[in-house]
């Protein structure tokens, strides 16, 4: 089954904690600190795989987690880094933040490999905190926590030309005639249930790639029919071939059909609405006009050529008119700048998920106006790795409060010398 969308949870590895230890050797009365650093956590990496053309590998697995970094050891031993997870995707995959819909990365063009979620940095062992005035540090830095984010993957095919039109106008027959693609062809609506790519080789020219998507109907831009599911696959195209049943073999008016499809393209994307477009008036082999009756193709020409749409009468069934159409399309593509339609990143997980952004609150105890309560993940994590029984450890914690802006927030809340600060199980008196 063709899969062009998926939603997954990616989790980076936690950084290993720094170690607290001291040299203990015979004849060495007071060995210094020798706790090693923790290893870095593994990262989540996305990589383009030329052999893939769908997102099927992500349909049956939701969570992908990188390895955690190993804790540092004695004798300055560095913890082992966590293993990266490499997720392979087809070219054209756009990675977005599931919550906001903002683009994180577009895996196309030169962007073949990108680290999307970096692993947590390993914590420093206590050997890093020894100074002339603090020779016996009894604390170490913990590793940065794992980070996680739910992302949405969308495959947007890369083609030069998009083939659009109502169901059963002959798009699949057209594609099978002009390219190497072999789409399913039958006499009923929505024969095409998945997008098809075909390479068109034009004699004496460069050739181009064409994308055929399931037939559109009115309301496609809002999800009616199959259009909303697949319009994304022509977002990167430089030109559109708009195929229409010129014979009106199913009782529809071809002029009305063209207007309806163009309206859906406009409602879905301003860029699609403004793409160069050529009209392929198909099924001319089924047109039989009586004396005095106007040729349906001429009606289409009179309506749309003054608006800048070139009209080509063709028969996908017999091959009539296809060569002229393809040469025209190739010549137009040569005139259109070949700028890759790249989706610009709007969301950086490294900025949005940094540990420093963890929240905390400063509140006055309702039962005691001289007690200030500070709580939140940022405080909880710091308390978890600081030895407050040590004078130097407490000084280290005070520096964290100052650098993190917490002392400033306490002062803005009205704290005075001698007032109490309560942080979970910790109580201390405040003095500026």
Automatic annotation (TrEMBL):
Residues 1-158 form the Obg domain. Pfam families: DUF1967, GTP1_OBG, MMR_HSR1. Residues 159-334 form the OBG-type G domain. Its cofactor is Mg(2+). Residues 352-432 form the OCT domain. One of its GO terms (biological process) is ribosome biogenesis. The keyword Zinc-finger does not apply. Its main location: cytoplasm. The keyword S-adenosyl-L-methionine does not apply. InterPro entries: G_OBG (IPR031167), GTP-bd (IPR006073), GTP-bd_Obg/CgtA (IPR014100), GTP-bd_prot_GTP1/OBG_C_sf (IPR036346), GTP1-OBG_CS (IPR006074), GTP1_OBG_dom (IPR006169), GTP1_OBG_dom_sf (IPR036726), OBG_GTPase (IPR045086). GTP binds at residues 165-172, 190-194, 212-215, 282-285, 315-317. Its EC number is 3.6.5.-. GO terms for molecular function: GTP binding; GTPase activity; magnesium ion binding. Keywords: Cytoplasm, GTP-binding, Hydrolase, Magnesium, Metal-binding, Nucleotide-binding. Mg(2+) binds at residues 172, 192. One of its GO terms (cellular component) is cytoplasm. It is found in: Cytoplasm. An essential GTPase which binds GTP, GDP and possibly (p)ppGpp with moderate affinity, with high nucleotide exchange rates and a fairly low GTP hydrolysis rate. Plays a role in control of the cell cycle, stress response, ribosome biogenesis and in those bacteria that undergo differentiation, in morphogenesis control. Belongs to the TRAFAC class OBG-HflX-like GTPase superfamily. OBG GTPase family. Monomer. This is GTPase Obg. It comes from Eubacterium cellulosolvens (strain ATCC 43171 / JCM 9499 / 6).
